[in-house]
UniProtKB/TrEMBL annotation:
Belongs to the major facilitator superfamily. Proton-dependent oligopeptide transporter (POT/PTR) (TC 2.A.17) family. Its main location: membrane. It comes from Panicum miliaceum. It is a multi-pass membrane protein. This is Protein NRT1/ PTR FAMILY 3.1-like. The chain crosses the membrane at residues 193-214, 220-245, 341-359, 379-398, 504-525, 545-563.
Length: 602
C-alpha cells in the first residue's frame, strides 16, 4: 500500500511539474516583466524595432535630408516589406525549420540590419554633411548612402519575417502543450494574446520615450546603438532558454496539402458531390495534423468537397491514397477556413492604412507645434506616447473589468466575440481620423493667423497636446482591433497552420502599409494642380483633407466588414473520447460567437 501511495504522490508531482513547464519558459520569450512563457526576446525585439522605426521619419528628413513624401513612402514600403516576409517565415517554420530555429535565425538577421543602420549614423562617410547655417537647401544623401540604408532595412525586414510570425505561436505552445507536445489538461484562465500585446505596448512605450529622447537630444549614434544592443540581449535571452522550450518538429508543408486539395478538386470538377458521409476519411493519415481533433465537414465552398470523392485510380496498391488525386475531409476543411477568413482579413487592411500616417505626417505635425514642457525640456515630436499608454490601459481594463461586466449581459466567456471586438476597433479608428482632420484644420488656421504659412521651421503657437485625442483614440482602437483579429485568425486557422495564421495577421500590416504608400502617391499626384494636400511645408498643405479621405474610406470598409461577419461560418472540430465522437463549435469553446456577432452587426 505504501508503494501504491508513493506512486500516486510521484504522479501528482510529475503532473504539477508538467503543468508549470510552460510558465518557466515565458520569461525567455516575452520578458522578465511577466511570469509567462517566452517574453525577453519579443520584448527586446520591440524595443529595438520601435526604437528606430518610431522616429525614422526624423532620421530620413533631418539626417539624410529626404523630402517628406519620399521619406513617408520609404517608411510605409519598409513596413510593407517587413510584414510581407512574415508569410514566408510562417511557412518556413510550419513546414521546414520549426519555430525555434526560425526565430533564432530571424533574430540574427535582424541584429545585422540594426548594426548596419547604426554604422550609417556613426560613420561620417555613410551620411551627408549637416546643413550649413542659413543655407537655403541641404545636401541630399547620395545613392551609396541610400543603398546602405536600404541594406539595413532589408536585413531587418528579413529578420522580422523569422521572428514575428512565430513568437506568438511558440509562446502559445509553451502554455498549451506538455513536454511531449500533447495538449495540457488545464489551460491558463487569462488571454495569452491580451498579455502578449500588453508586453508589446510596454516595449513600445519604453522605446518611444527613452530611446527617442536619446535620438533627439544626445545623437543618432547612441539613439540607434541602444536598440542594437537591446536586440543582442534579446537573442542571447531567447537562445539561453533552449532546454526548457517545447519544440514541435515541423510537419509536412501545409502549402503542399492545400495545393493537393486544390488540384484534386480541379481534376474532379465535373463530378457530382455525394452525401458528405460518403466522402473520404482516413484518421491515421490525418493523425499528425489533427492532434486537437479533426475538422468536421461544412456546407460552404462545396466545390472543394470534390477533392474527397473516391474515384477509380485514386488509391495505390497498398491502399494508401494518391494525395494529388484524393484528399480527406479534414484536409479539405483545412483549406475552407483559410478561404472563409480572407474576406474578413481583407477588411482589416484599411485599418493599418488609416494609422500608417502616425509614424510620418503626425510626427511632422508635432515638430511644428509648441512642445515646451519647461524651459529645459521639450517633448520630442516622436515621443507622443499616448497611443501606447491608452492601449496599455485599455488592455488592462478590458481584461480585468470589461470582460466580466459584458459576460453577465452576453453570457459569452470573453464578453464579446473576436469579430465584435474587431468591429469596435474599426469604428474607433474611423473616429480617430475624423478627430485628426479637425485638429489639423485648427493647426493650419492658427499658423495662418500667426503669419507663419511660409515659415515651416517656425513653431506654431499651438500646444502639441492637441494631438493627444487622436493618438489616444487610436490606442483604444488598437486594443480592440489588434487582439481581436489575432485571436480570430489563431482560433479559426487549422492547427497545422498556426504560424501561417500569425503571418496573415502581419500580412495585413504589409498590405495596409503598401496601400498607404499607394494612397499617398495618388493623392500627391492628383492634387498637384488644385493645391497640393501633402507638402514639405504642412502650413501650406491640406493634410486635413487627406485625413477626411481616409475616414470616408473607413466608413465604406466598415459596411463591407459587417456584411462579411453576417455570412461567416465558423469552423467545427470533432473530439474523440469514450469511443464516441462529439461535434463542437471551436470558437471560444461554444456557439455564442457566431450568434453574438450576427446579432451585434445586423
Amino acid at each position: 500500500m505504501a508503494e501504491e501511495g508513493g506512486g500516486e504522490e510521484m504522479d501528482a508531482v510529475e503532473k504539477k511539474a508538467k503543468e508549470n513547464d510552460g510558465f518557466r519558459t515565458m520569461p525567455f520569450i516575452l520578458g522578465d516583466l511577466f511570469t509567462l512563457p517566452d517574453a525577453a526576446n519579443d520584448f527586446c525585439d520591440r524595443i529595438a524595432n520601435v526604437g528606430f522605426s518610431s522616429n525614422l521619419i526624423s532620421y530620413l528628413t533631418l539626417q539624410l535630408h529626404l523630402p517628406l513624401v519620399e521619406a513617408s513612402n520609404i517608411i510605409t514600403n519598409f513596413n510593407g516589406t517587413a510584414n510581407l516576409t512574415l508569410l514566408i517565415g510562417g511557412l518556413v517554420a510550419d513546414s521546414w525549420a520549426g519555430r525555434f530555429w526560425t526565430i533564432t535565425s530571424g533574430s540574427v538577421m535582424y541584429q545585422l540590419g540594426m548594426v548596419f543602420l547604426t554604422l550609417s549614423a556613426v560613420v561620417p562617410s555613410l551620411s551627408p554633411p549637416p546643413c550649413a547655417k542659413n543655407a537655403t537647401g541641404c545636401q541630399r544623401a547620395s545613392s551609396s548612402q541610400i543603398a546602405v540604408l536600404y541594406l539595413s532595412l532589408l536585413c531587418t525586414s528579413i529578420g522580422t519575417g523569422g521572428t514575428r510570425p512565430c513568437i506568438m505561436a511558440f509562446g502559445a505552445d509553451q502554455l498549451e502543450l506538455d513536454a511531449h507536445g500533447r495538449p495540457r489538461d488545464a489551460k491558463p484562465m487569462w488571454s495569452f494574446f491580451n498579455i502578449y500585446f500588453f508586453g508589446i505596448e510596454l516595449a513600445k512605450l519604453t522605446a518611444a520615450t527613452a530611446v527617442v529622447y536619446v535620438q533627439e537630444n544626445v545623437g543618432w549614434g547612441w539613439g540607434l546603438g541602444i536598440p542594437t544592443l537591446t536586440m543582442l540581449a534579446a537573442v542571447i535571452a531567447f537562445v539561453s532558454g533552449y532546454s526548457l522550450y517545447v519544440r514541435l518538429p515541423p510537419g509536412e508543408s501545409p502549402l503542399v496539402r492545400l495545393a493537393q486539395v486544390t488540384a484534386a478538386a480541379f481534376k474532379k470538377r465535373r463530378a457530382a458531390v455525394p452525401d458528405p458521409s460518403l466522402l473520404y476519411q482516413d484518421k491515421d493519415l490525418d493523425a499528425g495534423i489533427s492532434t486537437t481533433g479533426r475538422l468536421l465537414h461544412t456546407d460552404q465552398l462545396k466545390f472543394l468537397d470534390k477533392a474527397a470523392i473516391v474515384t477509380a485510380g485514386d488509391m495505390l496498391p497498398s491502399g494508401e491514397a494518391k494525395l494529388w488525386r484524393l484528399s480527406t475531409v479534414h484536409r479539405v476543411e483545412e483549406l475552407k477556413p483559410i478561404m472563409r477568413m480572407l474576406p474578413i482579413w481583407a477588411a482589416t487592411i484599411l485599418l493599418v492604412t488609416s494609422g500608417s500616417h502616425n509614424g510620418s505626417f503626425a510626427i511632422q505635425q508635432a515638430r511644428t507645434m509648441d512642445r515646451d514642457i519647461s524651459p529645459r525640456f521639450k517633448i520630442p515630436p516622436a515621443m507622443l506616447i499616448f497611443t501606447n499608454v491608452t492601449m496599455l490601459l485599455t488592455l488592462t481594463v478590458y481584461d480585468r473589468v470589461l470582460v466580466r461586466a459584458l459576460r453577465r449581459h452576453t453570457g459569452h466567456p470573453t464578453g464579446i466575440t473576436h469579430l465584435q471586438r474587431t468591429g469596435v476597433g474599426m469604428t474607433l479608428a474611423m473616429l480617430a481620423n475624423a478627430v485628426a482632420a479637425a485638429v489639423e484644420r485648427r493647426r493650419r488656421s492658427v499658423a495662418a493667423a500667426s503669419g507663419l504659412l511660409d515659415a515651416p521651421e517656425a513653431t506654431v503657437p499651438m500646444s502639441v497636446f492637441w494631438l493627444v485625442p487622436q493618438y489616444a483614440i487610436h490606442g483604444v482602437a488598437d486594443a480592440f482591433m489588434d487582439v481581436g483579429r489575432m485571436e480570430f485568425l489563431y482560433d479559426q486557422a487549422p492547427e497545422s497552420l498556426l504560424s501561417t495564421a500569425a503571418a496573415l495577421y502581419w500580412l495585413t500590416n504589409s498590405m495596409g502599409s503598401y496601400l498607404g504608400t499607394l494612397l499617398v502617391t495618388i493623392v500627391h499626384a492628383k492634387t498637384r494642380r488644385s493645391g497640393q494636400w501633402l507638402q514639405d511645408n504642412l502650413n501650406r498643405g491640406k493634410l486635413d483633407n487627406y485625413y477626411w479621405l481616409v475616414a470616408a474610406l473607413q466608413v465604406l470598409n466598415l459596411v463591407y466588414y459587417f456584411l462579411c461577419v453576417k455570412y461567416y461560418t465558423f469552423k467545427t472540430l470533432e473530439t474523440v473520447g469514450d469511443d464516441k465522437e462529439v461535434e463542437l463549435d471551436h470558437v471560444n469553446g461554444d456557439d455564442y460567437a457566431k450568434k453574438g456577432a450576427e446579432a451585434s452587426f445586423r
